[in-house]
Design a protein that fits this description.
The complex is a heterodimer. By secondary structure, chain A is of the alpha+beta class. Chain A is built from six helices and twelve strands. Chain A has helices at residues 2-15, 30-34, 115-120, 131-137, 140-148, 173-196, and strands at 18-20, 23-24, 39-40, 43-49, 52-63, 65-75, 85-90, 103-104, 109-110, 121-125, 155-159, 162-167. In chain A, the strands form two sheets. In chain A, strands 1-4-5-6-12-11-7-10-9 form a nine-stranded antiparallel sheet. By secondary structure, chain B is α+β, with helices and mostly antiparallel strands. Chain B folds into two domains: 5-70; 74-146. In chain B, strands 4-3-2-5-6 form a five-stranded antiparallel sheet, with helices on one face. In chain B, β5 and β6 (140-146) form a beta hairpin. Chain A binds chain B through residues 27-28, 30, 33, 80-82, 84-85, 99-107, 126-130, 159-160, and chain B through 1-11, 52, 55-56, 59, 63, 66, 70, 75, 77, 90-93, 117-119, 121-122, 124-125, 130-133, 135, 145, 147-148. β8 of chain A pairs antiparallel with β1 (2-3) of chain B, so a sheet runs across the interface.
Chain lengths: 197, 148
């Protein structure tokens, strides 16, 4: 934990972010909800990349075993009217299995139009997400970016205007945090641009 | 709502177990009284399986209708005006009472009430002022689907 504190302190100092011991982010995305108090510790806030501000921090929760993520949170105002939920999760990332009952709400639909993305991510949206808007969002440039540029364990969740990028490394180091912030900011800027068009 | 793998498993389990209880005792030569008692239990199991299968079929037809509205509907938006919890849950998912300002192109903006079963995470994110996409049935604009 001391190493992680040092990593975040060094990263914050290097990027001119405000270092904070802990931050409660609220139940904004499914991954944050997994953590009991939706809290990241340690954390830093400020410019993630480009024109995007947000928070980066370490998220840990225990569900039989302890899961550790490093996450970057940014707001994408106005996205809910176009895409209420969009989850792009690394293939193979362990998630909860909530299938305890025989019937469930029609909650999500897989987006499978890009082979390059399918190899790396499981992408899901609302069952009634506008497919034309999705095709415009996932332009060839964004597909290329997501398929090749972010850290190998990168995933993101967009839920009701909150975008959470995450990597699974326990301590990704300052370079890993920088890559997480850059990827999250890139996705946030791309979604915001598409919502503005 | 839609049936999932667990649902199919339950339909098969109750159906096959019920069938086994109905015909098993007779096949193995049990006396009439025992056969009738066990068969009546089996009949209850079969009724449960039939009920689940009927509900799954009903949900599938409703989903197909909603899919049709999504494909052919008029796209607009719905802004959440008020959120209420009915304190009813379906498989641990809350039944939410939403008051929405529905804005569909070509139609007057109007306020409507809506009940939706939602996963807990989504239900907790519903708040006044949230604008969501909506699709109205072109043949019956009073009918719409809410994208959440």
């Amino acid at each position: 934990m001391a190493d992680l504190d040092a990593t975040y302190a060094a990263f914050a100092a290097e990027r001119g972010l405000e270092s904070v011991p802990a931050l409660g982010l609220g139940a904004l995305t499914p991954l944050l909800v997994e953590s009991k108090h939706c809290q990241v510790e340690p954390a830093a806030r400020g410019r993630l990349g480009g024109e995007v501000d947000g928070v980066v921090g370490h998220l840990a929760y225990t569900r039989n075993k302890t899961f550790r993520f490093n996450v970057a949170l940014a707001e994408v105002p106005g996205s809910t009217a176009f895409v209420p939920r969009l989850f792009c999760v690394r293939r193979g990332r362990s998630t909860r299995d909530d299938e305890f009952y025989g019937f469930e709400a029609r909650y999500s639909k897989l987006w499978t139009e890009s082979t390059a993305l399918n190899e790396r991510y499981t992408i899901s949206t609302s069952p009634y997400q506008d497919p034309n808007w999705m095709r415009q969002l996932f332009s060839p440039a964004l597909v290329d970016y997501l398929a090749s540029k972010p850290p190998a364990d990168f995933s993101f969740e967009l839920a009701y205007g909150a975008l959470l990028g995450s990597v699974e490394a326990d301590d990704p180091g300052a370079d890993g945090l920088a890559a997480l912030c850059e990827a999250t900011a890139h996705v946030a800027a791309r979604i915001a641009r598409e919502c503005g068009e | 709502m839609q049936i999932n793998r667990t649902g199919y498993f339950l339909v098969a389990l109750f159906g096959l177990l019920g069938l086994a209880l109905c015909i098993g005792p007779a096949l193995f030569g049990a006396n009439l009284e025992t056969s009738l008692i066990v068969a009546s239990t089996g009949a209850i199991f079969i009724l449960v399986a039939a009920g689940l299968a009927w509900y799954a079929r009903h949900a599938k037809a409703k989903a197909a209708h909603q899919d049709w509205i999504f494909r052919n509907g008029i796209k607009g938006s719905a802004t959440v005006v008020e959120v209420g919890n009915s304190h009813t849950t379906v498989n641990e998912m809350p039944l939410m009472k939403l008051t929405l300002a529905l804005d569909i192109p070509g139609l007057d903006r109007r306020e409507v009430s809506r009940r939706e079963v939602m996963p807990v995470f989504t239900a907790n994110r519903m708040e006044a002022g949230l604008t969501l996409p909506a699709y109205a049935n072109p043949e019956d604009p009073a009918e719409f689907i809410l994208v959440w």
